[in-house]
Design a protein that fits this description.
- The protein is of the alpha/beta class.
- The chain has 3 domains: 23-128, 2-Layer Sandwich (Nucleotidyltransferase, domain 5), CATH 3.30.420; 132-324, Nucleotidyltransferase, domain 5 (2-Layer Sandwich), CATH 3.30.420; 336-540, Orthogonal Bundle (Hypothetical protein af1432), CATH 1.10.3210.
- It is 46% helix and 17% strand.
- The protein has helices at 64-67, 72-91, 103-107, 111-122, 131-145, 183-190, 196-211, 217-220, 230-242, 258-269, 273-276, 290-304, 316-324, 336-348, 353-374, 380-390, 402-411, 420-431, 443-446, 450-468, 503-511, 514-520, 536-540; strands at residues 23-30, 35-42, 48-56, 96-101, 126-128, 152-158, 163-169, 172-179, 224-228, 255-257, 308-312, 477-484, 489-495, 524-527, 533-535.
- The strands form 3 sheets. Strands 8-7-6-9-11-10 form a 6-stranded mixed sheet, sandwiched between helices. The chain has a 5-stranded mixed sheet with strand order 3-2-1-4-5, sandwiched between helices.
- Helix 6 packs across helix 12 and helix 18 crosses helix 20 (450-468).
- The chain is elongated and about 85 Å long.
Length: 541
């Protein structure tokens, strides 16, 4: 679990400060739909490592609006799950166990009796959160995993019984709200009848009216939007599957465009719950309530006129973990966490930092001149830069085929601030920085969308030339000049030292220029300091 964490508050119990040992904390969130536990080690400097997780879905909130009490069968299922979680926490030698309950227990007439029964059965003391406390924990978790230090941000968490909203400006919370708009509650209220389309329309009108007072459009239109909870992780899973990103190691950080959320909502609305169980990326156990959750999310997106929704894989239980450890996440500059995470990962793989940094600088210089001509979106610049920094991490396993090792290492790394789609692209660009060119039929590319494959191909072409220009790992090329001619692309490396020959670097760049020639649809010419021109056509021949 990566996070933008700073040192704990003064007097915090998070670990033994004298010997630097971590504190192991078990955090349990009793929700309306599911109960989730996370066991994690927290160090005095704020580092967190997840040791184990456990989940159950007793659906405590089922039928609550109709009966006003928790169902006896659901209580029995919840107690069974909590006994297992208590046993796991003890076996994993947790120093502390923190338990909170949210809307179902908060609203039920027998909520206090349930908490007392939990105490008798497990010894655990349940803290029933208010709606504002729930929203604040969701925000605390988002603050630890996203760069929220600039601009207006809305964090929403959709549970089984309620929707939590936290509105912040420059990292400071301005408004908290908890509304009875959970996925399980809305499903029972609007989607239990035969006419699902009619029920969905009523549901959306209901949500639209409920959120209006809490999301003033004038101040919050266009705000960045982050969603946490099972609705959003499943929405991200569906989106990634539709993009061919099934190999992504996590959904955390996935950005889902507004129009794509509407498409997925339409897809789900046309299916029965039984049919939804077969939707790629969707947890079958959530097939009956996902429609209500996505419809609620869509109304918030529409209200804010947000271009996209970012998904957090971390939620209230992680916020509880941070609170229990008294670790205070603080807002950081946008991109700082990603840059630090990439470099830290490279260092753990013992990469050649000087070579990686130099190749990155050359690759970005080439991108600035060639990217617009190739139709690359601006966000591809950062993707290329990260791929350049990590292209050789495969040496950590071995030289032979190290580009393939780089691919697997990057694909399974925990890189904070990078979306799953970007991580798949970075891994593939590193995979092809040497050796064979990327081909559509390659197993790691075949499932990706044509647009993603094209972007990978263009960025790979640039990285190969940049890597060739530092063939000797000596930083012999200080800069590059690029001219896009009618008959060719001409690249002139500038020596770092006066009268530098650059024979190895020119040869390396020419040898790896064939893919760039293909994407630019013209020969690539590498011009040596003595004026000699070395063309990609010779490589192709």
């Amino acid at each position: 679990m990566g996070s933008n964490l700073r040192r704990p508050d003064r007097g915090a119990p998070a670990g033994d400060r004298r010997n630097g040992r971590p504190t192991r904390i078990a955090a349990i969130d009793i929700g309306s739909n599911s109960i989730r536990q996370i066991l994690a080690d927290v160090w005095p400097d704020g580092r967190i490592r997840v040791a184990d997780e456990l989940k159950a879905a007793p659906r405590l909130g089922s039928g609550l609006a109709r009966r006003d009490t928790l169902d006896d069968a659901a209580i029995a299922r919840a107690l069974d799950a909590l006994r297992r979680m208590t046993m796991l926490a003890h076996r994993q030698q947790a120093d502390r166990i923190e338990v909170v309950a949210t809307s179902a227990v908060r609203e039920a007439a027998n909520g206090e009796a349930f908490a007392a029964e939990v105490r008798r059965a497990t010894g655990l003391r349940v803290r029933v959160l208010s709606g504002d406390e729930e929203a604040r924990l969701a925000f605390r978790s988002a603050l630890a995993h996203f760069d929220l230090g600039h601009g207006r941000v809305v964090v929403m968490d959709i549970g089984g019984g309620s929707l939590e909203l936290a509105l912040s400006s420059d990292g400071v919370v301005e408004h908290l709200a908890s509304l009875p708009l959970g996925a399980l509650r809305l499903t029972e209220q609007f989607l239990a009848g035969r006419d699902q389309r009619k029920g969905l329309a009523k549901l959306r009108r209901h949500v639209r009216e409920a959120i209006r007072p809490h999301l003033p459009v004038r101040e919050w239109r266009g705000a960045r939007l982050i969603g946490s909870g099972g609705t959003f992780t499943n929405l991200a899973g569906i989106h990634l599957a539709r993009q061919g990103m099934k190999v992504a190691r996590t959904v955390h950080g996935t950005a889902i465009p507004h129009v794509e959320i509407e498409r997925i909502l339409e897809l789900l609305a046309d299916q029965t719950p039984a049919e939804r169980r077969g939707v790629p990326g969707l947890n079958p156990g959530r097939a009956d309530i996902i429609l209500a959750g996505v419809a609620t999310a869509m109304e918030v997106v529409s209200r804010l006129e947000a271009r996209a929704l970012q998904v957090s894989a971390y939620g209230i239980r992680e916020g509880l973990l941070l609170e229990a450890a008294r670790v205070s996440p603080t807002p950081v500059d946008r991109g700082e966490s990603r840059h630090r995470s990439v470099r830290d990962f490279g260092a753990r793989c013992h990469y050649d930092a000087a070579h990686a940094g130099h190749v990155r600088a050359l690759a970005l210089a080439l991108f600035d001149r060639l990217g617009p001509r190739l139709g690359c979106p601006s966000e591809d610049r950062e993707v290329l830069g990260d791929a350049a920094l990590l292209h050789d991490v495969g040496y950590h396993i071995g030289f032979r085929g190290h580009q393939k090792h780089s691919y697997h290492l990057i694909l399974h790394a925990e890189l904070l601030g990078m979306s799953p789609g970007e991580q798949v692209m970075v891994a593939n660009i590193a995979r092809y920085h040497r050796g064979k060119r990327p081909r559509k039929r390659d197993e790691n590319l075949a499932g990706l969308s044509p647009d993603v494959r094209r972007r990978i191909r263009k960025l790979t072409a640039i990285l190969r030339v940049a890597d060739g220009l530092d063939r000797g790992h000596m930083g012999a090329v200080r800069a590059v000049r690029v001219r896009w001619l009618r008959r060719a692309v001409r690249i002139t490396p500038v020596p770092a030292r006066r009268n530098g020959a650059l024979r190895l670097e020119v040869w390396g760049a020419q040898r790896k220029s064939d893919l760039l020639s293909r994407v630019t649809k013209r020969p690539v010419e590498i011009v040596a300091p003595d004026g000699a021109v070395h063309s990609s056509e010779a490589v192709e021949a």
